[in-house]
Structures are given as structure tokens and as C-alpha cells.
TrEMBL record:
Function text: Chaperone that specifically binds and folds nascent G alpha proteins prior to G protein heterotrimer formation. Also acts as a guanine nucleotide exchange factor (GEF) for G alpha proteins by stimulating exchange of bound GDP for free GTP.
Keywords, ordered alphabetically: Chaperone, Cytoplasm, Guanine-nucleotide releasing factor
Native source organism of the sequence: Maylandia zebra
GO molecular-function term, one example from the UniProt record: G-protein alpha-subunit binding
BP GO terms, sorted: G protein-coupled receptor signaling pathway
Similarity remark: Belongs to the synembryn family.
Keyword Plastid attached: no
Pfam name, any one: Ric8
Protein name per UniProt: Synembryn
Subunit composition and interactions: Interacts with some GDP-bound G alpha proteins. Does not interact with G-alpha proteins when they are in complex with subunits beta and gamma.
Superkingdom as given in the UniProt entry: Eukaryota
Length: 589
């Protein structure tokens, strides 16, 4: 088939003849199939071609011509500067009809979601819009054997439009496309729909929920999105749930999840799309209380997510991506619902701690350490798992004790600084020295929770210097303990620590070699001279606003020091009644 230039294609389309149009479009589609960048000089011609193709789509067409027209729309919709023909009510309604997601309604028709998997990724802003005034003509119900190739091409086109164009997003919301696609998502057990239809239904849903706040709320509340997508995820993974919230893959009951064969590539792709949509519609759930009915839905979802966490995909890289989406979603669940991670019975080969199955928690810990060792984009890659472990430890006693046994075992090394070494404690304490405040605060919070929010114990494992940031933020620099719901733990102080604790420098957390006195051999006059020299240096830094002198208040927080404060401290030292903090006053785990 000869390649045709754009003007020649337009000429053939303008004849209105289906056969001529089919030949021209097939040539154009073949030529442009892998094209993702476009010549700006031909922008007007491409827009005109788009209008002509839409005109054809409003007619009765031969199946081959219909498919060619939709393929052309998919290609043209890749150009974000050439979307005007496709973002109006008529164009979006037409595409929704061919995607079989148009809603028969007196108010508005169906709407659609996301982007071609190999073409673009989602991104954009969110806004709300009212109902549109136009009414889509009623679409006939899909036939028993719908042309799924046509549906996929229409879905891909809608996805491209949504990705690139805000007007298209508004029209899609007005047309209520989420209702149409939700109806098909309910058919998760229907073998009629092939992988591509399922995938682009989900990708479309992802885009809509990522780009539109109103659609996100509509799916979550009106359309019961969590339950709908949870069932879809369960069907995708081939799971059967028992009444005890334990999951098993159909045909593999009784076999530990980690011993199951890996998920297929298609299963993994579909599951990850579902996880991303669920993340969009649940990201604020853990900030509010949920009722008993909602909690049951989230606990059921949590049981499925535990299965995801323990499952493997085809290849290590794909498995890690799958687990990453799972961890992100687990972090959105209401905290009391996370107990489903501990529910499975202890089986042979399981990791047991205090009579509880810790397989899922151990997998989370390994996942977190792997991300930590990689050291790449820690804020994006590490914090979801670290936050999840922190909150799980805060609310579940067995989880906290298990994590402490792995991260903060009884202290034996008193010669190396807490941030030096290759143990998990060393790695996490090193995070507390980073410039990125989000990462350092999250790392400190994790260790603080493992220490039952005991200041003395926290300092013992991290050193006062590393702990000071969190303690200052909490108003705990004077010692004490944050209120918390924590159980009492038995004392497990090691012999090594007991022998060395008198020599441990609380600032660094280690035994340090005795340093020579820098003032040894100086006269009193020389010492006074050096002291005043230091005072003048600090005064100069302060006057030039390079440093801000601070003092520790009675409430344990840092406040600015005024010119009158040194005189007050001379007459009445702030800390004169305070005893040095006892690093071992708290019981150990």
C-alpha cells in the first residue's frame, strides 16, 4: 500500500465514499502508527482530518471503515495541540458510544478514563464542573459479541484526550462516563471481555480519578468504588476468601502464598491499574473515622492486599513495582483495619512471633530495607513503606515488638556511633542526618515508636545529637516520655552495655577515647582570653544573623534568647534542678 500525504488523505475523505476513505485512512494509519511527535505546519490539516473522520463516525459504516476511522482518531489524539475537534460534546459522546460506555440518561451520557499504556502517562489538575446541557442520543446496548477491537480503539482515544486536554476532562465528567465504565467493571467475572478492554477500562478510570476530584468522589461514594474495585482485584488474582479474611488462590488452597506460581504479566498489569485507582479514591480515608460497614469493606480489601504483598509477578522488577503499589494503598487504609496483616494462621515455614504470623510484616520490612539500600529518591520510594511500618507498630503491639527485635535488638556495640555500620538500625539512624526533613523526620518517628516514645531509650539507640531534632519538635528536650498506648516490656539490657554505660557519651551514643584537655598548661588569663574570643565570635555571628542563639524553655521547647536572658540564667540557671537523664530508666523490650 502506497503512503499518502495528509492533503491526499483529506481529498479522499471529502468525497464521502467509504471505500476511498478506507484506503486512504489505512495508508495514513500504517504510516503514522508509531508517530508521537507531529509537524506543526500540518496542524490545521490534522484538525480538518479529525473533523472529517468524526463526520464518518456519525454514519453507518462498514466494520473495516469504522475501525480505520477510530484508529485515525487514536493517532490524531496523541497531538495535544490538535485536540479541538475531539473535545466537544458530540465528539466525546460519539467515542463513548463506540467504547460501549455511554450512559442512557435524560441528563447526560457516559464518560471515560485513561491513557494508552504505551503512549502516555496520567498527570494534570483537578476541577469540578456542572451538568452539561446537551443530551446524547440513546445508544443501543452492546451486542452479544461486541467488536472489542472497536471498543479498545475508542477507549484509547478517550484516554489520550483526557490526558492532554482539560476541556475533554470536563466533558467526560459531564457525560458521566464513569458510570458507564463502572457498569462494565462489575462484569469482572464475565469471560466476554478480553484483556485489552479490561486494561483500558481501568486505565480510563485511573485517569478520571486522577484528574477530576468530582469523579473521584462519585466513584468512591455513589458507585461504591472500593467494594467494586476490591471485587475486581479479587477476580483478577483468582482469589477465594474465607469468612476469616484469609485469602487463597482458587485451585491452590492450603498452599502458602509465597510458594504459589508467579502471577501472569496480564494479571499483574490489571492488578496494578486497580491498585492505582483504589489509591486515588482512598487517599484521605485514614484521616477520618469509618463506620462499621466501611471498616468491613476495608478489612476485606486489606486481606486481598496482604495476598498481593506475599505474591510474586513475572520477574523481580515487576514484582517490586507490584509491591510498591500495594504498599502505597495499604498506607491509605484505616489503621485499625491493618490487623488483617496478622490474621493468617501460622503454618509451617511461617515467621512466628508471640504466636502471630509475621510473614506480611517481615515482607514489608524487607521491602523497606531494599528501597533504603538503593538510596534513590528516598522521599518517593522509601517513605510509604516506612510510614506504614511506623503506624502499624504504633497500633499493634506484636508488630512493634517484632520490628524492634529486627531493627533495635539489645544494644551490644558501644564503640561505633549509631549511624556507623550496616545494621538496619545504623541505616535508619543515618537517615536522621539527611538534609531532607521529610525523610529524617519519618526515620526518627519510626525509631521513636519502636522505643515506645521513651526519650531515654530513643537517645540510647540513636545518640542525643541525632535525636535532638525530633525531641525539639515534640518539646521533649528535657526528657520524659510522650503519652502513648504501649505495653510494658521486659528488661533485656546486655552485659556489654551495662559495663560501658558509665563511659558512653550521650550526645554521640558511644564510648569515646579520652581526649586531651585543650586548656592544659594555660594560665587563667589565657583561658579567660580564649573564652572572651569565643564570646565575641558568637556575638558577631549573631549580629550578622548567621546564627540565632536559643535557650531551652521549661516546657522542653527551644525559644529565642534575648539580651536579658543571659543575666537571668546567671542568677537562676534553668536546668539547676534537673537531674541528668537516665538512659536506662525505661524497661527494655
Amino acid at each position: 500500500m502506497m503512503n499518502m500525504d495528509l492533503s491526499a488523505v483529506i481529498e479522499e475523505m471529502e468525497t464521502g465514499d467509504q471505500d476511498s476513505a478506507l484506503t486512504a485512512l489505512q495508508s495514513y494509519n500504517k504510516q503514522m502508527n508509531q508517530c508521537f511527535t507531529f509537524n506543526r505546519d500540518e496542524q490545521k490539516d490534522r484538525e480538518h482530518l479529525g473533523e472529517l473522520v468524526l463526520g464518518f463516525l456519525d454514519r453507518e459504516l462498514q466494520p473495516s471503515c469504522l475501525l480505520a476511522c477510530l484508529e485515525t482518531v487514536r493517532i490524531l489524539s496523541r497531538d495535544k495541540n490538535c485536540l479541538d475537534p475531539f473535545t466537544n460534546q458530540f465528539a466525546m459522546s460519539t467515542l463513548a458510544r463506540y467504547a460501549s460506555i455511554a450512559v442512557d440518561s435524560a441528563t447526560t451520557p457516559a464518560h471515560s478514563q485513561s491513557v494508552d499504556g504505551q503512549e502516555e502517562d496520567a498527570g494534570g489538575d483537578e476541577e469540578e464542573t456542572g451538568l452539561c446541557s446537551k443530551v446524547l442520543k440513546e445508544s443501543s446496548p452492546p451486542s452479544e459479541n461486541p467488536d472489542q477491537e472497536v471498543i479498545v480503539e475508542a477507549l484509547k482515544s478517550i484516554c489520550n484526550i483526557l490526558l492532554h486536554n482539560e476541556t475533554g476532562q470536563m466533558v467526560a465528567a459531564d457525560l458521566q462516563l464513569i458510570k458507564g465504565v463502572a457498569e462494565r467493571l462489575k462484569q469482572c467475572h464475565d469471560p466476554t471481555w478480553n484483556y485489552e478492554v479490561r486494561f483500558f477500562d481501568l486505565r480510563l478510570t485511573f485517569l478520571l480519578t486522577a484528574l477530576r476530584v468530582d469523579v473521584r468522589a462519585q466513584l468512591a461514594q455513589e458507585l461504591h468504588g472500593v467494594s467494586l474495585l476490591g471485587n475486581h482485584l479479587e477476580a483478577t488474582l483468582g482469589l477465594c476468601c474465607s469468612g476469616t479474611l484469609e485469602t487463597a488462590r482458587a485451585g491452590f488452597e492450603g498452599i502458602p502464598t509465597e510458594e504459589l506460581p508467579p502471577l501472569s504479566r496480564q494479571q499483574t498489569e490489571l492488578a496494578m491499574e486497580i491498585l492505582k485507582i483504589l489509591f486515588n479514591i482512598t487517599f484521605d480515608i485514614n484521616r477520618r473515622k469509618v463506620d462499621e460497614e466501611e471498616a468491613a469493606v476495608y478489612r476485606h480489601l486489606g486481606a486481598i492486599l496482604r495476598h498481593c504483598l506475599m505474591s510474586h509477578a513475572d520477574g523481580e522488577e515487576r514484582t517490586e513495582e507490584f509491591h510498591s503499589h500495594t504498599v502505597n494503598l495499604l498506607g491509605n487504609l484505616p489503621l485499625p483495619c491493618l490487623d488483617v496483616l496478622l490474621m493468617p494462621k501460622v503454618q509451617q515455614g511461617s515467621i512466628e512471633y508471640m504466636g502471630v504470623n509475621m510473614d506480611a510484616v517481615n515482607t514489608l520490612l524487607k521491602f523497606m530495607e531494599k528501597r533504603l539500600d538503593r538510596g534513590h529518591k528516598l522521599k518517593e520510594t522509601l517513605l510509604p513503606s516506612l510510614n506504614l511500618l511506623t503506624e502499624s507498630a504504633r497500633i499493634h503491639r506484636e508488630t512493634r515488638k517484632f520490628l524492634r527485635s529486627k531493627v533495635l535488638p539489645p544494644l551490644r556495640d558501644v564503640k561505633n556511633r549509631p549511624e556507623v555500620g550496616n545494621t538496619l538500625r545504623n541505616k535508619i539512624v543515618r537517615l536522621m542526618t539527611l538534609i531532607d526533613t521529610d525523610v529524617k523526620d519519618c526515620a526518627a518517628e519510626f525509631l521513636f515508636v519502636l522505643c515506645k516514645e521513651s526519650v531515654s531509650r530513643f537517645i540510647k539507640y540513636t545518640g542525643y545529637g541525632n535525636a535532638a531534632g525530633l525531641l525539639a519538635a515534640r518539646g521533649l528536650l528535657r526528657g520524659g516520655k510522650d503519652p502513648g498506648i504501649y505495653s510494658e516490656d521486659e528488661d533485656s539490657e546486655t552485659e556489654e552495655y551495662r559495663e560501658a554505660k558509665a563511659q558512653i557519651n550521650p550526645i554521640t551514643g558511644v564510648v569515646e577515647e579520652e581526649q586531651p584537655n585543650p586548656m592544659e598548661g594555660m594560665t587563667e588569663e589565657q583561658k579567660e582570653y580564649e573564652a572572651m574570643k569565643l564570646v565575641h565570635m558568637f556575638d558577631k555571628l549573631s549580629r550578622n544573623h548567621l546564627i540565632q542563639p536559643m535557650q531551652l524553655g521549661m516546657d522542653g521547647t527551644m525559644t529565642e534568647m534575648t539580651t536579658e536572658d543571659p543575666h537571668k540564667l546567671t542568677n537562676k540557671p534553668l536546668l539547676q534542678s534537673e537531674d541528668p537523664p537516665n538512659l536506662d530508666s525505661e524497661d527494655e523490650n
